[in-house]
Amino acid sequence: MRLCIFLALVLSLCAMGGCASEEKPQNKYVEKPAAVYEGLKGQTCAVMVWADWRTRTEYNQIQIDTARRLTGKLSKTKKDGKKSDSAALEFIDPVRVVRYQREHPEVMSMAITEVAPKLGASRVIYVEFDEFSAHSPEAIMVLKGFAKATLRVVEVSGGVAKVAFEEAGIHAHYPPDSPEGVVASDKVTVRTIYDGTLELLAEKLAARFK
After folding, report:
1. Which of 112, 158, 149 is nearest to 128 (CA)?
2. Does the residue 16 lie in any domain?
3. Helix count (H) and strand count (E) of the chain?
4. Which residue of 46, 103, 147, 164 sits 20 to 30 Å from the alpha carbon of 114, by its own alpha carbon?
5. Cβ(147)–Cβ(131) under 8 Å?
């Protein structure tokens, strides 16, 4: 009898809030967004990343690295091997998108609603870097990752594009528990700070999709 009561209690708790074993682990540094975009399901999606000339020169892989991380997070499968119910039908290879940007530099100064129909996708996730750095501006030996970006989702239909979702000021500090930065060492390098900052930013961006 006690066993039956215990099992009934467990089942009721799972029904109310979900069993803990099935819940997706949450990064405590990724805040719950005020709004999310729900229109990726069944769509063909491209991720395009914009960064200014200085940022692209200092971090020459930032566009492809950011796009790959975000695409990977948005296309993750559930534990049963099936795609999430809200997942896009297909993601265009980020390499193709970055190649298009490099072969058509004029798009860097165009509005994303003009560029989106050229990418062959019905949804374009556009990440525009406002700031990015892996160094502290105060001390040359201190590493401190900071990224700030604007996220837009563009819907394309019949060759016409419109911005359906936008959020500015999405930012990431890395390491998140050391806002003052860390001293460079054999284990902590510009590369580890760069990777960590982009990874945290990608998690925050992915949290805006449902």
Report:
1. 149
2. no
3. 6, 6
4. 147
5. yes
Confirm whether 170 is domain-assigned. Answer: yes
The answer to whether residue 96 is domain-embedded is: yes
Alpha-carbon span 152 to 8, nearest angstrom: 45
Burial class (CB in 10 A: 0-12, 13-18, 19+), 190: middle
The encoded tokens of residue 173 equal 């500090």
Is 6 a member of any domain? no
127 CB neighbour count, 10 Å cutoff: 22
Q: Which CATH number do you get for residue 159?
A: 3.40.50
**Structural domain of 198:** 37-206
The whole-model pTM stands at: 0.83
Q: How many domains does the chain have?
A: 1
Q: Which of 206, 150, 141, 125 is nearest to 180 (CA)?
A: 141
> pLDDT tens-digit profile of 122-143?
999 999 999 999 988 877 789 9
Length of the chain in residues, anyone?
210
